[in-house]
């Protein structure tokens, strides 16, 4: 995996960007490695093609959308998509930065869905700090 200091720096930038989106009432709904770009050591989030702007205070996006490896259990169960679903995706990105693997992997879509909905979130390799692993949880 990558150096922990670098991962933390990128993670902070991603979280600041996601916080800005959410304060602007925008759900990205497809945060994944392919939509995170580095430009001059700065993280940029791209591909807002399926993002959603929320109107009401209790609004939840109800469309089943996104990339299965990064989808939250709520989205998998068709309970709607809200800001915490984007945060779940950031956790999946953190795991991927540390291991170069998906947090929830499986043979086929149904296996991935089962692992996300029923499984335990994986732990980071022991080469990473307990604090970083705690963030993942």
Automatic annotation (TrEMBL):
Name of this protein: non-specific serine/threonine protein kinase
EC number: 2.7.11.1
Similarity comment: Belongs to the protein kinase superfamily. NEK Ser/Thr protein kinase family. NIMA subfamily.
InterPro entries: Kinase-like_dom_sf, NEK_Ser/Thr_kinase_NIMA, Prot_kinase_dom, Ser/Thr_kinase_AS
RNA-binding in keyword set: no
Record Pfam families: Pkinase (PF00069)
UniProt keyword list: ATP-binding, Kinase, Nucleotide-binding, Serine/threonine-protein kinase, Transferase
Keyword Disulfide bond: no
GO terms assigned for molecular function: ATP binding; protein serine/threonine kinase activity
Catalytic activity: L-seryl-[protein] + ATP = O-phospho-L-seryl-[protein] + ADP + H(+); L-threonyl-[protein] + ATP = O-phospho-L-threonyl-[protein] + ADP + H(+)
Residues annotated as domain Protein kinase: 1-137
